[in-house]
Records
---
Amino acid sequence: MTSNYPYASMRNQFNLSACFIADPQACNNRPLTDIVDDALRAGATFIRLHCNNENAKEITTIARDIAQIIEDNNKCDSVTFVIDERVDVVWQARNQSIKVDGVHLAQSDMEPREARALLGEDAVIGLSVETESLVKVINELPDGCIDYICVTAMRNPEEGCESTTAAYELEANHTTLDEAKINTICSASDFPVLVGGRTALDDIDTIAHTKAAGWFVSEALYSSETPESTMREFVEHWKAVRGEEKHGYAKRVIVAENSESKSSETQEKKPTFINAKEAKDAAKLAKQQRVDIAARGCTQRDKAHI
């Protein structure tokens, strides 16, 4: 299957240490892109777009805007951007050359194997997990199927939850996580583990002292008058314990190729670009080349009929 996606894969370099969940329904009448921009400037390394009520066209538009904000911050090569649940939208966005690096799946979404088959080997795929026993089942997935797992929640749902994002964070798991539970899940998992769920500043120190790969936050930024400062505090608390330490990655299948297939792939493989401007320029050039080729074809057909 041919893909128009021009950006380099983030599968070998995604960073879960500081994840922000972008939710257009939780912005309190502020532009979502402004809060995403605040999070990026404060040090967010991973963005998840979660949309409850928007249709595919609307989500694609929002994704395009967020991708542009990432580009404007010169972070196309350092920040990973995924969309929650909507594999169809991710596929569409990537085919429209929008920098969407992958998808985050819940247990009720498309089966991970099918998502991988549709999105290809370059996409990042995450999966929400409810319990330690389920982690063991997920470990049985084929190598390279998913890239990370996510567990919730740091706070009880009954503590109060206005935001749709916060409700989403808590829907799978109605028991709170502590250091011991997080470590148990991390030890059982073959994948890096993202932890969150109504995450407060005090929780960052707890998570940082576990085996978790990183944390995600949403409500704390939406309820803040200064989202950038709030996000920066979270990032600084994490780095005070972890520094610049980077998590590991899940095993992936490396397929051996014979010289003939390598030669064929060398001829057909499309170039990838980390720099967003290079990617856009290349896409424009390719489009113009297709137009020129089509025009030459029309001219040749006209001559043939004379």
---
Amino acid sequence: MFVSIYTQAQSSTCANASPLCASEELVYENTHDGSAAESGPNYGCLGTQPNPGWFYLQIGASGSVELEISQSSTPDGAPDSDVDFIIWGPFSDLNNVCDNLTTNNIIDCSFSIDPIEDVDIPNAIAGEYYILLITNYAGDFGYISVKQTNLADPNAGTTNCDIVTGNTYYQCEDDGNEIAEFDLDTIMLDVVGGDASLNPTAHLTIEDAENNQNPLASPFTNTANPTVLYIRQDNPMGGFLITEIQLIVADIPEVVSHTLFKCDTNGDLSEEFNLETALPFMVGDTNGLNISFHASQAEAETNSNAFTTLTNYMVSTQTTIVYVRVQDPISGCYNVQPLTLELSTIPSVQNTNLTTCVDVGETEASFDLTSAESAISNVAGVTYTYYATQADANAGNTNTIANPTDYVSGNATVYVVVTDGACSAIAELEL
């Protein structure tokens, strides 16, 4: 992609033609110094070419492109000053294009006395370039406007606005200090489309870029976030081009590891997991993020072989680890964290009882229910929850016995839910 951005809105020579995006209206101060366009190009219908402004545009989507050029004495005023134009093309690239502005390449031209001109580029093809010359025939100070008028037509072509919007390059970090190193060599090569012969250099200011002084070394450490740099390169049409780029240090998405449990009810080590249920615990707000699941960390890091089945992912071992990749699609920054899928087995339990003595006439006593745990189950790592009713135990709700170490009761049955991961069993504890 050929990218260039200028601080001025127009250029007085073809070699330094400014990029044009027609989908957004361009209004610029005209040239009014009495200069004339350079010799060499065939200017077609233009009897004279005073006060020139040179532009180039690239077609984004194929189709006809219709432009309106107008000139007025005030920025938002009614058109009132004679403006003229000529446009050449199409060209496959910009190399030596200024030497090929011939009669055969003229697409449209007008030398009328009107303050409004209509430019027609019929049947434009995506990727093609066109050279546009606008002249201020009136010669007075004023403002020239250029805009596309047929954007509402579903068959209309468009101009590629990437050639004027520049590039943003991101570096990812997780320490929050917004400082990072940028590989300027790689960035500059990207700006010039991989053509190192264009001799790109990076500069902190537009003045340094224009004067070709104080080039920056690579790697470059930013001191502000974002940081704007200016990339100077040789212009295939002659002279040089300057591209404004932005460097941004972006945060890596916050992701934490997690474990999902499921009960292996049949004891065959074969169960389905809904992987998406882990996301609220691992990521929280997933809005605007690209999330994928992978069998290995290496595949997650390279974003390859992402799972296509998430809601019924089958496992066949007691412990399975998959890897979740969470990526910000704008910055490209990503984080990979493991998701453990754990199959639990139903714990073995047995009913038992607790006995205590009371004074004659007493009907209640204090029981330490936890003292019966070793008799209820010998499975390590399980948890015990105590209920006064079987209905509450079956429901697994929050109506638990608040203080199982000092439970005052008479003769009764307590229901103990023994939990191992996602599996549980109920034992009866007779008091």
---
Amino acid sequence: MIAIEYLSIAIAILLLASVITSKAAIPLGVPSLLLFLMIGIVTGSEGIGAIEYNNPELTRTIGDMALTIILFSRRTRY
């Protein structure tokens, strides 16, 4: 149970950091994607090591699902 609690806290912190950086990107004139990439680099295994990358299959599946959602959401707007 403790691992799930730590995971929930880590996800909440990353979501909060994402909201803060997306709000900060507008006055800075920087694309928010660039700031999201910086958060990923800092929290990743090459940064402070908070997130370990050890499952490329899961990452590919999540990326494919995200790409599918993006493609279909763009299609429904026009």
---
Amino acid sequence: MTIAKGYKKGTRYICTQGPLDKTVSDFWRMIWQEDVNVVSMTANIIEHGKKKCEKYWPDKVLKVADLIITFQNEMVFIDYTIRNFKIVKMGVSGHRVVRQYQYTAWPDHGVPTYPLALIEMMQNMKDFQKEQQKASPWVLHCSAGVGRSGTVMVLDSALEMSLAEGKVDVLGILYKMRQQRVNLIETVEQYIFVYRALVEYHFGDISCKPANEMVLYFNKLRQLDADKKKTGLEIQFEKLRQLETPFFQQKCLTALTPNNKNKNRDPYILPPDDGRPVLKTSPPSNYINAVYAYDYGVQNRFVVTQYPLPNTVPDFWQLLWDTGSSTIVVLNEINNKDELNPSAIWFIVSYWGLNDSFRNCLLNATRCLMQDIWNLLWYSVSEKGMIFPDVCKKEVTWNL
């Protein structure tokens, strides 16, 4: 365990290793002794088949020495989980509330794909302490308590410094922290991640808004900026393009192998090796140009892929079988006479069969469903007073 100082503050962090079976009792005694109300866990219990940390929290109740820890509830998000606990010490009146933040999308010795989810979690930690009116030190742990935990500590202090002084010294912050706990931030990727997170925080657009403010927010974004001669929507979209992850061939090595190059419709739209579904067939035929995508609160909710090529139709069906997908959404026109898409006729014959009756039935049902959704959406936004451009008021034609 190391007690470390934050930006111009006293004790801000307690950095420790992930609890072992024989240290769970010590961990909870430390939580009570230091009056901690926030725990940051940047690890999973099992990673790559190895145990990284003991599951030190209860599903119901845990008794440790003279402490009783009771599980209250949890909230699961895509990248992290929040758990609330109540702690009672025998012989002491009252109870304390401890909230654990487990960041589940951080690979050991690696970095998260996107920084904003981590920043959001850290902001939630601060907001919780403000609600509790209790600025006790954060307890941070991963597995060894140096790499991922150190990254969070340095990022938090760097954000505090940048907001207070309008400048930041990541190297200086890390140097001082390493004098308190050795080897904080283990890899150059983690060091770079701190800079990426700072850039996204200050130059991105933290666009999360309360649902009841969305109409006003949208109308505001549609207004023209007098200086930039662009709407807020255009400015926001340009920021998004500036912050998008650059294309690195080394992240898409499987897609670039000689056996797989002809399976890519566009040579610049390739799936990274760490985010693509792997077909349950023998290499090299286990590749398909597809990626997993998140939905709100659900990892890998969608599988996004290109329109099948003539030589990838079997792979497409293998993908559906392997992932258990029962719904296909085709967003481009399916046309037997489409000369620009030579795979269309092949895909239609393989996919719909020679008899179009099933396809026509499905498309008619889809048209009805989409029209119902549009009518409901139009009614909802009209009631809220949202102003749409005239072009959106014209009849909607579902070209399916």
